[in-house]
Design brief:
The protein is of the alpha/beta class. It is built from 7 helices and 9 strands. The strands form 2 sheets. Strands 3-2-1-4-5-9-7 form a 7-stranded mixed beta sheet, with helices on both faces. Strands 6-8 form a two-stranded antiparallel sheet. Helix 3 links the parallel strand 4 and strand 5.
């Protein structure tokens, strides 16, 4: 129960900061003047992105959110009437009724969902989403370049940081599980390889005022991972590693109070489906 609440908080905070940084929900080059737009949000989570978008577009716009589980969905009565939330595994073929339905498909931060990214999983996510876009429609994929996280300190003497060690530990886990994160800064290449036109990749470095809350959010994610390590530990060695990770996390939090931050580059890739 508590982990579910923490996850909701983390997701909503991350979404808010992402859009604060970019200054938009849909990229300004995507036309939204039509009163009969159909827009899909893949990996919708709490539906916050759609709820915010509903405030910017006419109520005649159809806004459909999809996620693998309804665990993060809010009560439907709390959402505008033109929003629907549905369960859909992005790795499975889309329903025939969704093929060519949407003017815009938005994919939101899949980097931690499908770590074996350059493998079949990523391409299935990409291809299934392309199927749902009508000819001439747009794909916007928001992502975090977590494979290139940076630790920054306002104190030049703090070079060997616990935050840096934690990120090193995370990198070791991704290597052990054969996760490949190199696709993230190459999203534009992947879209072009799948015949989208007008492909662009926009990169955003964190505003100064976002550095602190972004670091807190990153530590929240690492804390959840640490809790999972402890919960899944089956041997004394695994429990020792989990405890060491938790101690390192506590020290990283103390460092953050002294100006150490975790910076992540925000990416937005987009392209248009040929007519």
């Amino acid at each position: 129960m508590f982990l579910g609440v923490v996850m909701r908080l983390q997701l909503d905070q991350q979404q808010w900061m992402f859009n604060y940084q970019t200054g938009y929900l849909l990229h300004p080059s995507i036309p939204t003047s039509s009163t009969s737009l159909c827009i899909a949000d893949i990996g919708t989570g709490t539906g916050l992105w759609l709820a915010k978008l509903a405030r910017e577009l006419p109520p005649s716009t159809q806004l459909d959110g999809f996620d693998i589980s309804a665990a993060q969905f809010p009560p439907m009565e709390s959402l505008p009437s033109n929003i629907t939330l549905q369960i859909q595994n992005a790795l499975e073929p889309v329903a025939p009724s969704l093929v060519g339905k949407y003017d815009v498909v938005h994919v939101g931060i899949f980097c931690l969902n499908y770590g074996k990214s350059r493998s079949t999983a990523l391409f299935m996510v990409l291809l299934s989403n392309l199927e749902t876009i009508e000819p001439g429609g747009y794909l916007q994929w928001d992502e975090l370049d977590i494979g290139n996280n940076k630790v920054v300190s306002s104190d030049p003497s703090m070079i060997d940081t616990f935050a840096g060690k934690l990120l090193g530990q995370l990198a070791a886990v991704t290597r052990k599980r054969n996760w490949d994160l190199s696709w993230i800064p190459r999203l534009n290449v992947l879209l072009a390889e799948h015949d989208l036109s007008s492909v662009n990749l926009y990169k955003y470095k964190l505003h100064n005022e976002l550095v602190k809350p972004w670091t807190n959010n990153a530590l929240m994610v690492l804390e959840e991972m640490s809790d999972n390590m402890m919960r899944l530990a089956n041997t004394d060695e695994d429990r020792e590693k989990a405890l060491a990770s938790r101690e390192m996390l506590d020290k990283a939090y103390e460092e953050s109070l002294r100006g150490v931050s975790i910076n992540t580059e925000i990416l937005v890739a987009m392209g248009q489906k040929p007519i």
